[in-house]
């Protein structure tokens, strides 16, 4: 534990953020290429890195929205594990997020650790992955999300996240994604979806829709023209419509994970969430 006393925790610089993303890739988390840029635009002070003699050994992100915050990119370099660095930097992030309802998405085997830190399980999610047909699809109701009044997108996203993510969504639409689309019925948003390039194929998220048909149209529209369009979807296990769509597209279930909060779980319609924006 002596080495732990030498741990210096600082806000991450842009160079450090690149290191954080590289650590996530080594852990097999498949982050999007520009995820860190969009999340840093939401909260420029929310990335932390632990240094020993100037060398990075651990990291975590604690990103604030309006009332909800998220913990992510929680990694300790393998040769430095078991020395207390992880709990120190995790607690540092939690102190930074004091007063927020903090959300974390983690593998079910790690859920007890988060529960011991005050988190409560909200729901179990499932991940599906596989290749999707990238042929051209035309639908007059689908348009670029950037062409829709931003307040409409903001309000629609808040229905399923239970919080306003103003700065994050602005970055997500314009920087974090390859494509970001909306399904508009006259002036009403009936669906919203985004896709971004990642280490292995593409990550889809968010993908919200009023019906499974709209979700499928948006998903196929996001995938069109992309070579080797292997996608990843993360959605609540209780969303049987999401499962049916994933199986129709011949996607394969990979694993399950949990969503936990320090406060009460938001009351949102999980059956209309076809993929989260996982950090």
From TrEMBL:
Domain named N-acetyltransferase: residues: 7-146
Please give one Gene Ontology molecular function term for this protein: acyltransferase activity, transferring groups other than amino-acyl groups
Q: Name one Pfam family in it.
A: Acetyltransf_1
Record field: transmembrane = none
Listed InterPro entries: Acyl/Acetyltrans_Enzymes, Acyl_CoA_acyltransferase, GNAT_dom, YitH/HolE_GNAT
| Protein name (database record) | N-acetyltransferase domain-containing protein
- The species this protein was found in: Trichoplax adhaerens (Trichoplax reptans)
């Amino acid at each position: 534990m002596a080495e732990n006393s030498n741990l210096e925790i600082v806000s991450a610089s842009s160079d450090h953020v690149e290191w954080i993303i590289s650590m996530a890739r080594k852990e097999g988390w498949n982050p999007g290429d520009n995820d860190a840029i969009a999340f840093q635009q939401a909260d420029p002070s929310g990335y932390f890195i632990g240094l020993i003699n100037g060398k990075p050994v651990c990291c975590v992100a604690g990103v604030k929205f309006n009332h909800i915050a998220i913990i992510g990119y929680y990694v300790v370099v393998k040769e430095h594990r078991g020395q207390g660095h992880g709990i120190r930097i995790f607690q540092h992030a939690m102190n930074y997020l004091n007063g927020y309802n903090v959300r974390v998405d983690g593998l079910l085997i790690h859920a007890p650790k988060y529960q011991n830190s005050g988190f409560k399980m909200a729901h179990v999610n499932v991940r599906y992955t596989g290749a999707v047909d990238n042929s051209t699809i035309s639908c007059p109701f689908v348009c670029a999300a950037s062409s829709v009044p931003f307040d409409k997108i903001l309000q629609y996203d808040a229905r399923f996240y239970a919080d306003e993510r103003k700065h994050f969504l602005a970055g997500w639409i314009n920087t974090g994604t390859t494509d970001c689309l909306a399904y508009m019925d006259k002036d009403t948003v009936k669906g919203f979806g985004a896709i971004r390039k990642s280490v292995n194929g593409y990550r889809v998220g968010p993908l919200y829709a009023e019906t499974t048909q709209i979700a499928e149209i948006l998903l196929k529209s996001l995938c069109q023209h992309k070579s080797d369009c292997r996608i990843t979807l993360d959605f609540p296990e209780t969303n049987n419509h999401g499962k049916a769509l994933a199986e129709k597209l011949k996607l394969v279930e990979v694993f399950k994970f949990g969503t936990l909060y320090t406060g009460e779980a938001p009351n949102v319609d999980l059956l209309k969430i076809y993929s989260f924006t996982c950090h």
